[in-house]
Structure formats: structure tokens, C-alpha cells
Design goal:
Blueprint (H helix, E strand, L loop, with lengths): L6 E4 L6 E4 L2 H16 L17 H22 L1
Antiparallel strand pairs: 1-2
Amino acid sequence: MRGPAMYEYRCKLCGTIEPAGTQAEARSLRDAHRDEFHGPDEIVEVPRMRFVDLPRNQQVATVLVALVLLVGILVKTS
């Protein structure tokens, strides 16, 4: 008969391995390790990209493609 299961917390960033007796203990070790060594995680809202934020060459290409499509539609419908 096997003994109770053992768990380990293994950090994929730095390779730290810490033994734990339960899954809950392993999760607790993970949270403490992340906060102490890698800093707390955060979720931030990233502002949406606007047309004026594109590099100049992409702005020009976008306008040219739009004009070609517009001319193509006008030629096809006339």
C-alpha cells in the first residue's frame, strides 16, 4: 500500500522546487514564491491602438489599399 501523496511546487521561471504535503500547501508556496521572488502578478488594461499610432509607412499603405478597393468598387458598379 502506498503512503499519502506528496506534492511539489515547481517554478517554471527560476526552477525552484519546494516539497509540500498537500495541494493546498503547494498552492500557498506558489503564491508566496511568486510574490517574494518574481513580484506580484497584475492585469492592466492596454489602450486600443489608433490609426495615428501606426508607423507612417503602414498609414500610407492602409490609405492606398482603401483607395484601390474604393476605385475597384466604383468601377465594378458603374
